[in-house]
Amino acid sequence: MQFVAVCSDSLGETADLVVRAALRQFESLNIQLRRYPQIRSEDEIRELMEEVHRKSGFVAYTLVQPELREAIKEESVRLGIRTVDIMGPMMQAFIDTFHDSPTQRPGVLHRLDEDYFRRVEAVEFAVKCDDGKDTSAIVKADIVLLGVSRTSKTPLSIFLAHKGYKVVNYPIVPEIKPPEPLNEPIKGQIVGLTMDAEHLLKIRSERLKVMGLPNGSKYASLARIVTELEYAYELFDRLGCPVIDVTDKAIEETAGIILGYL
């Protein structure tokens, strides 16, 4: 098993995400990924570097303290270990281009600032307004997601909420009249979500299996799905909102399109 260490004087989340993103490109590797957060001393650097040396791995790091950055460079030379500085080149680009100096404070990304509390509030809002629970909140939302069942409304809402946006998602059902606030001008961006009917059929059928329900339910019939999608398109057309086909799209990709509308 190969070994990769993630070293940080904060939580190490940034380096961890970068390493995992790169790792997805190497499906044949069996990697043990270990995070070393909150590194505060040169002794800790030496200890972790000795372990990496024993396991013949490499180190990805985000260290902002100059003495720790220098220590890991010295140890990499002494032990012949490959190290990857995740944040250093980016900080140097800011220094060289804008002639400014970094704060050199670890964990700045995770400060409990106004932006943090805004995201927390947005997540609470999204949970409260999930799946049409509180339609009155539509007038307060930054984004209103509309779509038939199983078009990724909930995970998309939570993802956008983590970006700080207040999101309401509402399920479209032909037999149920759309909520009254949609008939009035609202401040938020309304977005319609749709999906290929055959793809949606597979998702709904799997959902029924998970719930232990019979597969012959109207919910998972192609005719019912086509009816729902046609009704949804009629509503989207009446509202004049953009429509995103989420078939085979990752949540992040759909979210990026929505944020482009904003």
Automatic annotation (TrEMBL):
EC number(s) stated in the UniProt entry for this protein: 2.7.11.32, 2.7.4.27
GO terms for MF: transferase activity
Alphabetized Pfam families for the sequence: Kinase-PPPase (PF03618)
Keywords: Kinase, Nucleotide-binding, Pyruvate, Serine/threonine-protein kinase, Transferase
Keyword Kinase: yes
Top-level lineage group: Bacteria
Binding-site positions, ADP: 147-154
Reaction catalysis annotation: N(tele)-phospho-L-histidyl/L-threonyl-[pyruvate, phosphate dikinase] + ADP = N(tele)-phospho-L-histidyl/O-phospho-L-threonyl-[pyruvate, phosphate dikinase] + AMP + H(+); N(tele)-phospho-L-histidyl/O-phospho-L-threonyl-[pyruvate, phosphate dikinase] + phosphate + H(+) = N(tele)-phospho-L-histidyl/L-threonyl-[pyruvate, phosphate dikinase] + diphosphate
Family, as annotated: Belongs to the pyruvate, phosphate/water dikinase regulatory protein family. PDRP subfamily.
HAMAP family for the chain: PDRP (MF_00921)
Functional note: Bifunctional serine/threonine kinase and phosphorylase involved in the regulation of the pyruvate, phosphate dikinase (PPDK) by catalyzing its phosphorylation/dephosphorylation.
Protein name (database record): Putative pyruvate, phosphate dikinase regulatory protein
Originating species: Paenibacillus shunpengii
Taxonomic lineage of the native organism: Bacteria, Bacillati, Bacillota, Bacilli, Bacillales
